[in-house]
Amino acid sequence: MTGATTGTVVVAKRVDDGEPDTDEITELVRAAGYEVAGEVTQSRTADPALQLGEGKVAELATRVADTGADTVVFDNRLGPYQRFNLGGHLPDGTEVMDRFTLILEIFGQRAQTRKAQLQVELAELRYELPRAEAKASLAKRDERPGFMGLGEYDESREQDIKAQISRIRDELENIETTERHRREQRRESGFDLVALAGYTSAGKSTLMRALADDLDLDENESLHPDLETTAESRDELFTTLGTTTRRMDIDERDVLLTDTVGFISDLPHWLVESFKSTLDSVYQADLVLLVVDASEPVEEIREKLATSHDTLYERNEAPILTVFNKVDRVPDDELAEKREALSALAPNPIAVSALTEVGLDELRERVDYALPRRERERLVLPMTEETMSVVSWVHDNASVEEVTYGDEEVVVEFEARPKVIEQSRAKASELASA
């Protein structure tokens, strides 16, 4: 499911009632590199065998034949038997995909790091497992599937998938243990950790680049060999698949800002589980910036905020600051109405435009205020051969206000996180006892 994609697609969508909205699935199809040749929609309860009604499936087959499309993408979740049955009604060689197969394909194209590639592979295997089981069931009934809906039956495939899932889980756990250790090292070194969260295309990567200290963009690369080196700013879904970390431009604080994969609505459990470790950088943060696209309809923002909070509150203990992004696209009166309508989910949000850099100074101030408070310390160090290395360490890990040198001692006054103060006192004790 990886690599560049070309081809034409007919989009299909069924809803229980109302008018089917194909905007998101069309955007996903284009993000995967396909050309949309047409669409077929239906409002009715799901047909257990075909998802769509039989007459609508016949219409879909005609549309595929007329447009010369080679793929049908359903915005609905398809069971393995539905894919099997649909393949029998469509022109020979037509590939049948659902939104989750498509998302996996996009993820595969975007995956650059080893962790991201493993997560894509894990999600693909979890998706394939029930289909392998379905192929085994069909084979036992002598209905050997040989089309692009399910593929040929391989008796050993089911066990192979389970073994690969186990191997990938072990490797991902090793990577996450290493990343967790790095985060603890950064925190112990005085860094505050801020994470960007929110839905795909909310503008998180653009905001990250606007907030990053340009002078230090590459400073942390040696600390993050497993992370993607840039947070690109493009109007595409899933531009950021892994995590990207940069130093944030805030006076008197050492802050690291991490961008993560965007949320997307209606993801199945197996896909969320595969990418769960990517969100650990959010769960381990001192502050979460929840970014929303303020130009979207208020009900859509409300739904995304509610889902985001459900996801974050599962394991997150850090405070959440809601950021209304893209306010350059929203009139002031409309923005005020949205603030009022969403106040229960987003109390006191900060309004910014990452693109035009409006509101960024206020955002930095709010981040500074929301992060854990620093404590003041006055450290008295005996004058020894190692004293200057301790003074240098304090400069690296704290905000030093004054250093006074005497004949027999050095006094350092600074502000720092409690953990750094604790470490500095231990270093002072070692000097005194040396």
Automatic annotation (TrEMBL):
Complexes and interactors: Monomer. Associates with the 50S ribosomal subunit.
Record keyword Ribosomal protein present: no
Cofactor(s) required, per the database record: Mg(2+)
Binding site for Mg(2+): S205, T240
GO MF annotations, alphabetized: GTP binding; GTPase activity; metal ion binding; ribosome binding
Cell compartment(s), UniProt: Cytoplasm
Organism for this UniProt entry: Halarchaeum grantii
Record-given protein name: GTPase HflX
Pfam families per the UniProt record, alphabetical: GTP-bdg_M (PF16360), GTP-bdg_N (PF13167), MMR_HSR1 (PF01926)
GO cellular-component term (any): cytoplasm
Family: Belongs to the TRAFAC class OBG-HflX-like GTPase superfamily. HflX GTPase family.
CDD domains xref list: HflX
Domain Hflx-type G: 192-375
UniProt main location, coarse: cytoplasm
